[in-house]
Amino acid sequence: MTRKTVIVACGTGIATSTVVAEKITEACKKENLHVNIIQCKVTEIKGYAENADLIVTTTILKDNFGKKSINALSLITGIGEEKVLEEIISELKK
Asked: Taking the model in full, what pTM does it have?
């Protein structure tokens, strides 16, 4: 099985991205998906984007870096969390 790389970014690269990264990791384990998660600041995405399969952020992303991006603020609020996790998993299964 191919290992996918997911960038998980927030404003500081520490707070909300940690919560999101943990939820993505847990969801991927349930689906038996192997992922490499790169946790960083939004301002650092450009440096990692070339080798990423998916970008997940908790803030508004102004650039698309040529990659699919998903806003995962719902993984922080809990509202619509399941739908966003399904979208992430679906994208990683492609």
From this structure: 0.93
**Is 33:19 a contact under the CB 8 Å cutoff?**
no
Report the SS3 class of residue 57: strand
Structure tokens at 66: 């040529």
Say how far apart CA 51 and CA 77 lie, in whole Å: 29
Q: Which of 29, 30, 34, 35 is nearest to 8 (CA)?
A: 35
Q: Which residue of the set 7, 8, 10, 72 is catalytic?
A: 10
Residue 2: the pLDDT is: 82
Q: What's the pLDDT band for 1 if we cut at 50, 70, 90?
A: low
Length of the chain counted residue by residue:
94
How far, in Å, are 32, 36, 76 from residue 22 at the CA level? 15, 12, 11
Q: Is 28 a catalytic residue?
A: no
